[in-house]
Design a protein that fits this description.
- By secondary structure, the protein is an alpha+beta fold.
- It has seven domains: about 120 residues, Rossmann fold (3-Layer(aba) Sandwich); about 160 residues, Topoisomerase I, domain 2; about 190 residues, Topoisomerase I, domain 3; about 140 residues, Topoisomerase I, domain 4 (Orthogonal Bundle); about 45 residues, no CATH class; about 100 residues, no CATH class; about 60 residues, Bacterial Topoisomerase I, domain 1 (2-Layer Sandwich), CATH 3.30.65.
- The strands form eleven sheets. A six-stranded antiparallel beta barrel has the order 9-10-21-20-17-22. A five-stranded antiparallel sheet has the order 29-30-31-32-33. Strands 2-1-7-8 form a four-stranded parallel sheet, sandwiched between helices.
- α7 crosses α19 and α12 crosses α15.
- It is globular and about 100 Å long.
- About 40% of the residues are buried.
């Protein structure tokens, strides 16, 4: 539909700034929640989403404005049909051009009523209603729903948007209001209805064919598929073998024999975890002793490439060939040993080690020295996806945690002496564009702070990799570069400060000059046989000019070394040569950062949805994070397979990308959103009907297990070695006898599908009921669970953790819940006693990792809380874990006693393991 021109406003723009910004009665009281009847008469009403945004905007508007918050969406599709209505999708009349029916969200009735009364008071005295919700689709939809509820025609509404909540941006927006963008609203409606159709029609199918309570999502299911496919790539991966040879050299020929022995000792060192010295530690030792490392690159003038081929399923044995290379390098009588690794696949089954001491008299010379100046350009300013990726990799933040902190920084934080200040621009954007004002601000700051050498002749311009990026939006940047992280530190929570620092540094660095490096490559040629010379190459670099690193810091790298001064043609001596067997690795598991990057590059989702996608796929149990990497669960794999079986198109990456492009066309090119939904729904409905009839239940399906896994119960009964199959049960995948139900053998499996031993009883008394405990293996490793877990008559859910040393630890007592609010999500803060004293953490951990500032509390309040914590500790003492015969295993603080045996040793003192029948019952077989 054609957009109508915005009607001219009779209101004065808010150029006066903040006549009522700090404190005049009605203006200040009205910022955010609640409405006092009659207080808006003679004024204009401004509606935003959140109270914090309302407070910040109210600071810049004069007393003639009342600012109220809708607290997010006020209307949505109903969750269920009214009585007597049997629409397949509640709130959507599929047969009538997908006509949606909206209702006020439960709990929002008073908010809507307050806004209606305020709008009525404003309009009765000639005032205007302004819609200042966020500038994305969701913000446009909120404005549209509000206009509908207030009886204001969207085409005549006064819509204002600003990329940053600053005085200048607000004044600019209020000078140029426009109607609500119906195309953008339609794009949001289409997305909402698409998601509702998939969720409400596919989820019941999963209930029937997999398990009750499951749910499907149009975009989330594709994200799960990405993780599942990566899981299977890793599982199916067979490594390839290759060899690398590293040598250590020194220009001091007389020192080489002594260095040889000392270097061998360095390589033989192991830390408490059994790990060898890191590459960084090795390079530091070499630099301290005047040596350097180089990699073998040529043998007899040909590129060095020693890789194993596979013939008839057996990998080639490279022992003889690597032994020859070792002898050519100067190792006398090298020895190649081999051991078999039963866990290895393909060539990785055979682990080979080549050892021997290099003869330091082996002739080597510096055959070439290459030097060149290289530059490292500053990165582009953040967009939503790159901010989430950087916060994940550098700060350890999840996407939701990042967006909560960014939302607070955008909407405004209380700065002493300034009031609420919006510190960053809008945080949901896919554009790296910067306004001319922002660039000028950055360049002026750089010139003042760092000097002309750090300022490029012309501004740095960055193009967006996303073709659909909306260049009218800006990248995420500070609203005022003069508000450095150190200046606002005390006003921010820890998360807000760390994220603001990241954003501020990236913005400033992006307008600075490149860093410059002097890179050097030294070639070393020689060896034991002049007819077959070896060439090693060493590389190093030195920072010549820090450029933008002046702000973000110089990145560390383990493989960068400092090369000693050498000249071409000079002799050098080898004091170490290490042939190293290596194997290619499987594709890396997704982290939050890399999954978001893939979603963005594949066109799946949009900046506003990345965080929720990551959150939802974990909450539904389809994927889980271990050590910040995603693993597909058995449930995730089964659901993905079932969805692919029925809807091969809608969870295809390409199809989802095209749907996102169609939604963009609804917004930007006036594509009819109803026609778009029809094109989706017709084939979807056919696939759904077919799946209802033909799809087999997941629990009825089996897949063969590897032939080495056979049924022990059948062997005992004289039925022979019956093969095992994989089944899917209430606790995930498990092994079952192929003769089921005649044989009821079942066994849990590990991540690789291998049988897991049945839980063994451990000589530890449950702290809840005093009964024996069993050692179990869960998603996060071994733990102890009460043997009465799942008991129908007298169940107990006692659990004890096992620490890294294998010892049992006592459960932590419950925290003291305080009335203090989390600075990140406003949930109550928990008070605990730590090694450094009391500390405050969010009660929603790990969903929220907000922390309270204990040191900033008034002394009297701290004293009161410490007294309450002491009383709480007395009422909830730490349980002492004991053996079944009463011997203490932990101290009063819950830590293991030095003399306490490990859980493995305690299991050795136990009785019989659980029966296979009990495992089968637990698995629901």
């Amino acid at each position: 539909m054609a957009k109508k021109a915005a009607s001219k406003s009779k209101e004065k723009p808010a150029a006066a700034g903040g006549g009522g910004a700090r404190g005049r009665g009605p203006g200040r009281r009205s910022a955010g929640l609640g409405y006092v009847a009659g207080s808006a008469k003679g004024k204009s009403l401004v509606i935003v989403e959140s109270p914090s945004k309302a407070r910040t905007i109210n600071k810049y508007l004069g007393p003639e404005y009342v600012v109220l918050a809708s607290i997010g969406h006020v209307r949505d599709l109903p969750n269920r049909n009214p009585k007597g209505v049997k629409d397949p999708v509640p709130g959507v009349d599929v047969a009538n051009r997908f006509e949606p029916t909206y209702q006020v969200l439960p709990g929002k009735e008073k908010v809507v009523e307050d806004l209606k009364r305020a709008a009525k008071d404003v309009r009765s005295t000639g005032g205007e209603v302004w819609f200042a919700t966020d500038l994305d689709r969701e913000g446009e939809a909120i404005a549209w729903h509000l206009a509908q509820e207030l009886g204001i025609e969207p085409g005549r509404a006064k819509r204002v948007i600003f990329p940053a909540i600053t005085k200048s941006e607000i004044e600019r927006a209020f000078r140029k209001p426009h109607p609500i963008d119906q195309d953008r609203v339609n794009a949001q409606q289409a997305r909402r209805i698409l998601d509702r159709i998939v969720g409400y029609q596919v989820s019941p199918l999963l209930w029937k064919k997999v398990a009750r309570g499951l749910s499907a999502g149009r975009v989330q299911s594709v994200a799960v598929r990405l993780v599942v496919e990566r899981e299977r790539e890793i599982r199916a991966f067979v490594p390839s073998e290759f060899w690398a040879v590293r040598g250590e050299f020194t220009p001091d020929l007389s020192a080489a024999p002594g260095l040889s022995e000392r270097w061998a000792k360095v390589l033989g060192q192991r830390d408490e975890k059994g790990a060898a010295p890191t590459l960084k530690a090795q390079n530091a030792w070499l630099a301290e002793h005047g040596g350097f490392a180089a990699d073998l690159v040529e043998v007899g003038g040909e590129a060095f490439d020693l890789s194993a081929s596979v013939r008839d399923g057996e990998p080639e044995d490279l022992s003889e060939r690597i032994g020859r290379i070792a002898r050519l390098a100067g190792i006398g009588g090298p020895e190649v040993t081999v051991r078999e690794d039963p866990e290895g696949k393909g060539p990785a089954r055979f682990v080979r080690t080549a050892t021997g001491r290099v003869d330091s008299a082996t002739p080597y010379r510096v055959s070439a020295i290459e030097t060149r100046r290289t530059a490292s350009r500053p990165p582009a300013p953040f967009i939503t996806s790159t901010l989430q990726q950087a916060a994940s990799s550098r700060l350890g933040f999840g996407a939701q945690r990042t967006m909560r902190a960014a939302q607070a920084l955008y909407e405004g934080v209380e700065i002493p002496g300034e009031g609420p200040v919006g510190l960053i621009t809008y945080m949901r954007t896919d554009s790296t564009n910067l306004s001319g004002e922002a660039v000028d601000m950055a360049r002026a700051f750089i010139g003042r702070q760092f000097g002309e050498r750090y300022l490029p002749a012309s501004p740095n311009v960055y193009s967006s990799s996303n073709k659909a990026a909306q260049e009218a939006h800006e990248a995420i940047r500070p609203t005022d570069v003069a508000l450095t992280p150190s200046k606002v530190r005390r006003a921010l929570s820890e998360d807000q400060f760390r994220l603001y620092t990241l954003i501020w540094e990236r913005f400033v660095a992006g307008q600075m000059t490149p860093a410059e490096w002097d890179s050097t490559a030294v070639s070393i040629t020689g060896g034991a046989d002049p007819k077959t010379p070896l060439t090693f190459r060493a590389t190093g670099r030195r920072l010549a000019f820090d450029g933008f690193y002046r702000v973000v810091g110089v990145p560390g790298a383990d493989d960068i070394q400092t090369l000693p001064a050498v000249r071409e043609g000079a002799r050098v001596a080898a004091f170490g040569v290490e042939p190293q067997q290596k194997f290619t690795g499987p594709p890396a598991r997704y982290s939050e950062a890399s999954l978001i990057k893939t979603l963005e590059s594949e066109g799946i989702g949009r900046p506003s949805t990345y965080a929720s996608i990551i959150s939802v796929i974990q909450e539904r149990g389809y994927v889980e994070q271990l050590q910040r990497r995603f693993y597909a669960t058995d449930l995730g794999e089964v659901v993905t397979d079932k969805l692919l079986e029925a809807f091969d198109d809608i969870i295809q990456v390409g199809y989802t990308r095209e749907m996102e492009a169609q939604l963009d066309k609804v917004e930007e090119d006036h594509l009819d959103w109803v026609d778009m939904l029809k094109r989706f729904y017709v084939p979807f409905a056919k696939d759904l009907a077919k799946a209802e009839k033909l799809m087999q239940h997941a629990k009825a399906e089996t897949t063969p297990a590897p032939p080495e896994y056979t049924c022990p119960e059948c062997e005992k009964a004289g039925r022979g070695a019956s093969p095992l199959v994989y089944r899917f049960g209430k606790n995930g995948r498990f092994l079952s006898c192929s003769l089921y139900p005649e044989c009821r053998y079942a066994s849990p499996v590990d991540r690789e599908g291998r049988p897991r031993p049945a839980a063994a009883t451990v000589n530890v008394a449950c702290v809840k009921c005093g009964g024996p405990m069993t050692k179990r293996t869960g998603r996060f490793g071994d733990f102890l669970g009460c043997s009465r877990y799942g008991d129908k008559e007298n169940p107990c859910d006692g659990i004890l953790n096992i620490d890294r040393k294998g010892k049992v630890t006592a459960p932590s007592p419950p925290p003291l819940v305080t009335e203090l609010k989390c600075p990140t999500c406003e949930a109550p803060l928990n008070l605990r006693s730590g090694l450094r004293g009391p500390w405050l953490g969010c009660s929603r951990f790990p969903q929220c990792r907000g922390r309270g500032k204990w040191a900033d509390l008034p002394e009297a309040q701290r004293a009161e809380l410490e007294k309450a914590l002491e009383a709480h500790a007395k009422a909830n003492p730490v349980a002492i874990v004991r053996t079944l015969d009463g011997k203490a295993l932990t101290d009063a603080s819950g830590r293991p006693l030095a003399t306490a045996p490990t859980a493995a040793a305690l299991a050795g003192e136990s009785g019989e393991p659980e029966t296979l029948e009990s495992v089968a019952e637990e698995l629901g077989v």
